[in-house]
Write a structure and sequence with these properties.
The structure holds two protein chains of two kinds. By secondary structure, chain A is mainly beta. Chain A contains no helices and eleven strands. In chain A, strands 2, 4, 5, 6, 9, 10 and 11 form a seven-stranded mixed β-sheet that branches. Chain A has a four-stranded antiparallel β-sheet with strand order 1-3-8-7, with no helix packed on it. The radius of gyration of chain B is 14 Å and the shape is globular. The chains are: A mainly beta, B mainly beta.
Chain lengths: 112, 113
């Protein structure tokens, strides 16, 4: 039973399209995150939600919009995809606001 | 603001040899420190953490790290590596004020026969 699951695992799409990535955690955690890992493996936080409330919103283009319908789910919608959006997007969760994160397996987005 | 520096982007080592992956951090407040491991095509997994107390922390698979406040370091060591340790290793720092985990740029450990 996967703790943090993301769908889809792979996503190939054209520039200008809109796509979504879904994330669910069954750990009962209060906090969920989206991280972006670029081709050089650099990890950068994008968003964080605590009990459905947005608490971290890094300098991410407005084309990226997170949505948390409940504390077990955090989805990421991306409008007007650009080549630079190609990356692996990781969802993660944690109990309380701390550094011990549980990561999903990632969603590899390729924009052509 | 906090930051993490991993000086080595790649560390090749032979199996059964010792290894040290270096991590330095900067922060003006107290920190929690972490090492995460990422195996190929997988998500990150927590390897070990320093929150408080003993400055030497250990993982279940033989890795250890030592928190050195004066040198602002949290180096990861293993006395004898195995081929299965081949992975990307990330050092990370968390401070309560920022409410976020900041990762270093990662060190690729490649264990060769």
């Amino acid at each position: 039973d996967t703790a943090v699951s993301q769908t889809p695992k792979y996503l190939v799409t054209q520039m200008g399209n809109d796509k979504s990535i879904k994330c669910e955690q069954n750990l009962g955690h209060d906090t969920m995150y989206w991280y972006k890992q670029d081709s050089k493996k650099f990890l950068k936080i994008m968003f964080s939600y605590n009990n459905k409330e947005l608490i971290i919103n890094e300098t991410v283009p407005n084309r990226f919009s997170p949505k948390s319908p409940d504390k077990a789910h955090l989805n990421l919608h991306i409008n007007s995809l650009e080549l630079g959006d190609s990356a692996v997007y990781f969802c993660a969760s944690s109990q309380y606001l701390a550094g011990e994160l549980f990561f999903g397996e990632g969603s590899r987005l390729t924009v052509l | 603001a906090q930051s993490v520096t991993q000086l080595d982007s790649q560390v090749p080592v032979f199996e059964e040899a010792p290894v040290e992956l270096r991590c330095n951090y900067s922060s003006s407040v107290s920190v929690y420190l972490f090492w995460y491991v990422q195996y190929p095509n997988q998500g990150l997994q927590l390897l070990l953490k320093y929150l408080s107390g003993s400055t030497l922390v250990e993982s279940i698979n033989g890795f250890e790290a030592e928190f050195n406040k004066s040198q602002t370091s949290f180096h990861l060591r293993k006395p004898s590596v195995h081929i299965s340790d081949t992975a990307e290793y990330f050092c990370a720092v968390f401070t309560g004020g920022g409410n976020k985990l900041t990762f270093g740029t990662g060190t690729q450990l490649k264990v060769e026969l």
